[in-house]
Design goal:
Strand order of the largest sheet: 1-2-9-10-11
Structural class: alpha+beta
Keywords: Membrane, Transmembrane, Transmembrane helix
Strand content: 15-25%
Order of helices and strands: HHHHHHEEEHEEEEHHEEEE
Distance between the termini: 75 Å
Transmembrane segments: 21-41
Oligomer: single chain
Helix content: 40-55%
Shape: rod-shaped
């Protein structure tokens, strides 16, 4: 029972140690509370920054998507311009066809040349075609000045010049502004209680310094903390630029027009089967059909359609030659006043050759080849003298990717800042770009160069190309 008895001196020592474990425990609890508060604060900062990062990524992607839509719109406008040019080529061709048919109908009813001669020389098929032209006399007014075809032509020209060109100008001028508006709207939707402003780009280049993480003092977070952002383009100059039509553009349109048989060359020659002149037994009477739809060097659509009966003649002065009898003609010059060198004609061609021989007038007044030629110069002369005046015509400028940026994407980086009162400003960056990538299951367009002629522009996020390596 000795353990039950403690000396008074030892008992006083034990009394002085009462409560020390409690102090240590309280200290440990305080440290734990501080650690918990710190971790909670860090979590708040991480949460704020994650939210801001996600919003910045969404804003950057939306901005790149707006750029892609703008470039695709330019492509659609250019394709629509091409479609209107093809329509205008069809209209001038219809105009020359209608003139040609009406003129041939007039020649048929006046027996110049007689229908039975055409049938005897070249067969029933050509006779039937010649006779059918009598029903086309009413088509003459369609192509005359103020007629239905020139009115449609003028409407296409108005759309090309005053609608599509203006739309292309607007897309070019507003692309970056529309991108910036989309970025601001996305940030506002992600932070509806905060004011969002766009600031000017600083002249200092380089990456943005990230501030150290500081535990916020206030809870809950300040949801009305204002945001500011700035965009930095990866390219120095505007991505698209206005181009004037060139010879290459004319060749492109000619290649497109070549897809339509109606606009193809209408050149045919039919010869009779028997010998006509013993002085030139290898030559025959010819029925020459000529027709062509062309885009001249001024970007102006023209169409010519003629047909002539070339009767083989011979005399002691010049030997064998072809006496031309125009059967049909039509020329729609657009804005051109003179035909091209491939369309021989004379402004002073007689209405008839009762007072002068055909061969004599040709040799004296023209340089036509009436011995072995392939044109219808007299019919051309009739077409030029009766040409209508159509308003409009000509190619217009267009927008395309700047040559030096042909194989570079259209990228940018945005820096977004959220300004808090209880901690340093949060800063995040996001980068995105618009790029050209043909989309086709059959790889049909894989060889296409980036440009404003195919709507294959897309958008995606990228890593910041200007961020410095650690």
């Amino acid at each position: 029972m000795k353990g039950r008895h403690v000396k008074p001196r030892h008992r006083s020592r034990l009394d002085t140690q009462h409560g020390q474990a409690l102090v240590l425990g309280l200290f440990l609890v305080m440290l734990l509370a501080v650690a918990l508060i710190y971790q909670f604060g860090v979590g708040q900062v991480v949460g704020r920054k994650a939210r801001l990062t996600h919003a910045a990524d969404a804003a950057a992607y939306s901005g790149a998507l707006v750029q892609a839509r703008a470039l695709n719109m330019q492509a659609y406008i250019n394709l629509t311009q091409t479609a209107h040019q093809v329509a205008m080529a069809h209209l001038v061709t219809l105009g020359s066809w209608s003139q040609f048919a009406a003129a041939q109908g007039q020649q048929f009813v006046t027996f110049n040349p007689p229908a039975h001669v055409i049938g005897m020389m070249f067969g029933a098929q050509h006779l039937a075609g010649y006779a059918a032209s009598a029903r086309a006399l009413a088509l003459r007014d369609m192509a005359r000045t103020g007629g239905q075809l020139p009115r449609l032509f003028a409407e296409h020209d108005r759309i090309v010049r005053h609608v599509l060109l203006a739309a292309s100008e607007a897309v070019h001028q507003s692309m970056q502004r529309a991108r910036d508006q989309a970025i601001t709207q996305v940030l506002e939707q992600n932070f509806p209680q905060s004011a969002v402003t766009q600031t000017a780009l600083s002249s200092q280049a380089g990456s943005v310094a990230q501030p150290a993480t500081v535990v916020p003092v206030n809870y809950p977070a300040d949801r009305s903390a204002p945001l500011s952002w700035v965009a930095r383009n990866h390219l120095e100059k505007p991505y698209t630029v206005r181009y004037q039509p060139t010879a290459g553009d004319r060749r492109f349109l000619e290649d497109v027009v070549a897809l339509y048989d109606f606009l193809d060359a209408r050149d045919h020659v039919r010869r009779n089967s028997w010998m006509v002149q013993y002085q030139c037994p290898h030559l025959r009477h010819e029925l020459r059909r000529r027709g062509r739809t062309v885009l001249d060097s001024n970007g102006n659509w023209q169409s010519t359609d003629t047909q002539s009966y070339h009767a083989l003649r011979s005399n002691q002065y010049i030997g064998c030659y072809y006496r031309e009898y125009p059967m049909g003609w039509g020329w729609i010059p657009g804005r051109a006043n003179m035909p091209g060198a491939d369309m021989p004609y004379s402004e002073n061609a007689p209405d008839h050759f009762g007072e002068i021989d055909f061969w004599r007038w040709v040799t004296q007044a023209t340089g036509w080849n009436i011995f072995s030629g392939s044109d219808n110069p007299l019919a051309n002369s009739r077409a030029v003298s009766g040409k209508p005046q159509w308003e409009g015509g000509g190619l217009v400028p267009y927008y395309d990717v700047r040559d030096v940026y042909r194989y570079r994407p259209l990228g940018f980086t945005i820096t977004v800042k959220q300004h808090f009162t209880d901690q340093p400003t949060l800063v995040v960056t996001a980068s995105a770009e618009t790029f050209f990538e043909p989309a086709s299951d059959k790889r049909r367009y894989r060889s296409e160069q980036p440009g404003m002629w195919h709507p294959f522009w897309q958008a995606h996020l990228i890593s910041n190309p200007h961020k410095k390596e650690d």
